[in-house]
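Handout, section B. The chain below has 833 residues.
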Amino acid sequence: MEPLAASDSLVEGGWREHLDWIPEGLTPDAHQAVAFERLSTKYEPACPTVLITGPGTTDAFLVPVLDHCRLASTAGQPGVKALLLCPTSTQATGQAGRLDGFLQGQALASVTAGLYLGGTSAENYRRVLTDHAAIRRAVPDVLITTCAILDRLLQRPEDVPLWQSKSLAYAVLNEIHLEDGARRADIAMLLRRLGAVTAAARPGRPLGLVCPVVTSAAFGAGTFGAGTVDEDAANAIRALAEEIFGVPFEPGAVVGENRLAPDEVPAGRDSSLPGPDPVPRAAFPVDRGSTPPATFLSAIDILRRQYVAHLVDLAARGRLAGARPLPRLAGALFGTDGWLAEFTAAALTAGAGKVERFLALFAAVGDDGGELHAEGGSFVGEDAATELRAYAVAGLAEAVAAAEQAWEARPGGDPARAAAHATLVDLGLLPNYALPGAALSAESLSGEEATAAATPTAGGGSAPTDGRSPRGAFEGDPRTRLLDGLRAWVARADTPGTVTMEADLPDGTRVAELRLAGPARSVTHWRMRLRPSVAASRAGVQLTRLGGPPVQVVVYLDGFGHDARAGRHQLADDADRHSALRARGVWVYQLTWNDVEEWRARAAGVPAPPRPPYQGPAQEQAQVYYRAVTSPPRPADELDRLVWVNPVDQLLAFLADPDPSLWRVRAQAALGGLLRTPGVERVLAADGSGAAAAIGASLRGAPLPAGAGKINVIRARDDAGCPVTLVVDDRAGLAARVFSAFVLVDDGPEAIGTGSGSGPGAVGVGPGTADEASTRERRRASWLAWANLIQFLADGAGDAVALTVTGLDGFDPTLLAAAGRRPGRAAEPADTR
C-alpha cells in the first residue's frame, strides 16, 4: 500500500498551484494538501476521494469545492455545483457555519450557498440561505442537506429547479461510518436516483462526471505511523465507497492524517483508549435473500422501494405519462380516486422500459473497462433483477392494494401515525431511514379524519355551550349533525327540496340523494356520499351533480376547538388540502360546528339572518357594484340572502343554482365592498413583477410598494379582523377585469400556544380572556367564509387561495395570474415542510 501522506513538494507549498483561491492565512496540514490536489478542477476533473475523519476534514474538501464554484459562478454557470450530504441536521448546521465564514470574504462574493433542512434553521447565517422558497428561487452553488431531505427534494415538483442546470460537480457524503447497512443501501440507490434526475448518469458511472467524496472515521489498531492508514481499514472503506457510488476508488484515493505512534505521544496521555471500529462493515449484494446489516429488510425489498421512489422522481418532472406529481398529504394517495390509482396504472404501463433504465443505473465498470465487483458483491444480481422486472409490470399493483388495505385498517389516535408511516415505507413512498415524526409532518391525520368518540342522543344531541364539540368527537360527523339537519330542513313546508335515502354501503359510507328547486322552476339533483375518502381526509359530505353539467362539491366540517388546540394544529395542512382540491376543479365548502348548530336550530319560516363582513358603507358599495355588473340588474338583497349568510345556507343556495359565473360576480361584489372599510390600503402596479411584490408585501404585513399602472393591489380587514388581499387587474380593460383574492390566518406557535399572534389574522385557543377566544374564533370563521366565497374567482382568470402564516414561505406570488401565469383554476400553495 502506498504511503498516504503528502509529498514534500505539496507540504512545502506545491498545493498552491492547484487552487486559484485559498482562505487568507491558510497553511494546510499534509492530508489537506493531498485533498486539495485530488479535488481541484483547475487542470483536470476532480478524483474520487475518501477523507479519514479528523481535524480539518471539512476544509480539506470545502476549499477546492469553493474554488471550483467561484470559477464556475464567475463564468455564469448556474445551478447547484456541490451537494454536501450529512447524516444529521446537527452536522449539516455545523458545516453551514464553516461555509458561512468562508463566504464572507470578498473573493467569494459571487458564490452562494443554501442549507435545506426540514424546518427553518435557528442559526443566523450571513451568506447561507435557509428559507426553502428562497433556495428554490436563487438556486445556490453549494447545497447542504441530509439524505432523508434529499429523498424528498428529488420527488417534489417545486424542487425541480434545483436539479435542472446539469452543473453538479461534487457529491460529498459525510461520516459514512455512522450509517448502518440498511441506510447505506438506501443511500446507494438514492445517489443513483440523483444521477437520473440530474441527467448526469453514464454507462458504468451512476453520477457521471460528478466527483464522489466520502468522509469517514476508519482508524484503529495498526493505523499509527508517518502518514499511513491501516491497509485493511483503507481497503474496507474504499470498497464501501465504491459500492455506494458505483465507481472505482483507486488505492491512493484514501487520504489520512499524519498520526503519531503511541511512543511519540507526550507523557501523560492514555493511548489505550479504544477508537472507532477500524473496519466499517461493507455493503451487501443486491440479490434475492441477502439482508443488509442492521435491518430486517432484504436487499430486494429495498430495491423495490427505491424503484418506486425513482418513478415518483419521474412523475415530479412530467416524465411518467399519466401520473401527476406525488401529493403532499399521505391520505391523498389512497382510494379509488387517489393518486396511487393513476400512478399504478402509469407505472405498470411503462414498467417494462422504466425498470430496465433503472437497472442500468447499477451497472459499473472498473479501471480496466471490466466489471467492478467488490468482495461480497455490490450490484444487482440476476435473480434480484428478474424479481424487480416482475414487480415493475405486475407486482406493484399487489403492493399498492396491500398498502390501501393497511391504510384503511390503521387504528385511531397516536398508533395511526406509526401504522400510516409503516404503510408508506413498505410501499416506498417514504425512505426507510426517515424518522416517523418527521415523515408524517406531510400526513395530516387531522381533526377532519378523527373518529367519533361520543354517540349523540336520539334527538341529534346538542353542541357544547362554548360552541365547540366534545373532546375527542368527530366534529364533522354528517350522520348525526348535518344529515339530520337536512332531513329536518327538507321536511319544512317552506323548503323546496327532498332527501331520499338509498343505502348504507359495506365500507360505512351512506349514500343519499338531494333534489333542490332552483330558479325558473328548475330542479338540481345531487348524489351525496357521506364520509367518503376525499383527498387526504374524510370529508363530511361529497356531492356529485346528476342530470346536468358535471359538478363536484365536498363539504368539510371544521371544529375550532379540536383543530386549533395547542399542539394539535392542522390549519396549514387543511388549507393546502382544500386548495389542491379546488385546483382540480372541485368546489370546497368549509362549515363550522356553530354554523351547523345555528342552522339546525332555526325555526321554520325564519329567514337566514345576514352575516355581513363589514358595515353599512361597505355593504352599499358591494350592492351597487353587484347591480351594475349583472344584466339585467339582479336584486341587491341577493347578497344579504345568499352570500352574507350562514355558510350552510350559502351552500344550499349554490346547490340549488350551481352557476359558477354568477357566484363569481357575487364574490367580486363582496370583495369590492372592502374598498370602503376602515384602514384599507391600495397601490398600483404596472406589470407582473410589481404585482407579485405588492401581493407578497400585503400578505406579510409589510409596507406596500408604491407604483403606477393598471393592476390594483388592495389590503383590507373585515370586521372580524381577517386580512384580505384583493387584486384587480384592469390591463385588459374594465369589461375584462380580473379579480384575485387571498385570505390569511395566523397559525403560528404564538397564535396557537398563547392565544395572541404576531402576524395578521391571529387565531388560536391558548390562554386568554373569553373575549380574546371569541375574537380568535370569529376571525377563523371569517377566514373560512371568505375561502368558500372567493373560490369562485377561479371560474374566470383569477386566483383565490386561503393561506396560513406558516404556509407563506411556500406561496410564490410570481406564479399567480396577475404576475403572468396562464389563467386557470386557483393557484395551489407549495409544501415547505
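Note. The mean pLDDT is 76. Compare this with the example in section A.
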